[in-house]
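Lab notebook, bench 4. Still working through the backlog of constructs that have no structural model yet. Next entry is a single chain of 301 residues. Request: give me the structure tokens for it.
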Amino acid sequence: MRRSILALLAIVLTSCQSLSQPTAAPSARMPSPPVSAPALAARVNGTPILLSEFEKRVAAYEQEWIRNGLDPASEEGRRRLAELPRQILEGMIEEILIEQHAASMGLTVSPEEVETALAQFVSESGGPEAFRQRLVALGMTEEEFRRNQRSAMLAQKVFERLTADIPSATEQVHARHIQVSSEEKARHLLARLQHGEDFIELARQHSENEATRELGGDLGWFARGTLSIPELEEAAFATPPGQIALVATPQGYHLLLVVEKDPARPLSEDQRDRLRQHRIQEQLRAWRAEARVEIFIPLSP
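Model written out:
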């Protein structure tokens, strides 16, 4: 009701002004040109990502990378800088998804928390003047820094909630593998193993995986979600101890020997970190898949 009364009052006042004032020339009554909407880089479930904010963040990262030694004229420098816009936009999209889902999880970051973090950052930077100089170098205002800090702190709370139930012990497998590029070679090596040749020696002689070759193909102990090759991990948990499986993956063909299994082996801190990262990445992918994401700028493949 109050809104209707105020709207009516505005109409009445406008009418009274037009009656009491001399008639203006037609040009004087021409409406002002409409203010154009800010350009967008993307929109996530209706929430905009301003093109200006996106460009500013890309520029800040470029400066930071170059300041830390990246040569923009080198092949690696050109490659990384070409990939940067897509990485930045994906990060900004994830920030919005996290913000949107944090609300449904009942998670917030208070202004006091942000100010405490800001004070610590200023101290670690060497004082207020050094902090201001850092912001200038990044092309960022203090308010923008606060917003970025708040986003990072909110993401931390969301991630902690998502990974709160990561166990201290879980089922794990100890396995070895021999990785080769052709199925023919894999089957030839498998036949040699079936005739009694030593797995460790064959791995050292023939495996094309540089990280594990000198270790006799040893992958160590791993839990679900911690091995970098999902197909190999799945096969390891499905294969009984003492048996060898032939597994095709995007990296090649693997002869996988399951050495032993433990149904409740304690997780190292590194393994728990990998499980946390896996859980977070899976959740972000799920949120992204169900979100309406519109991208308005060209990005390199």
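Notes after review: The chain has a mean pLDDT of 87. The longest strand covers residues 252-266. Flag for follow-up if needed.
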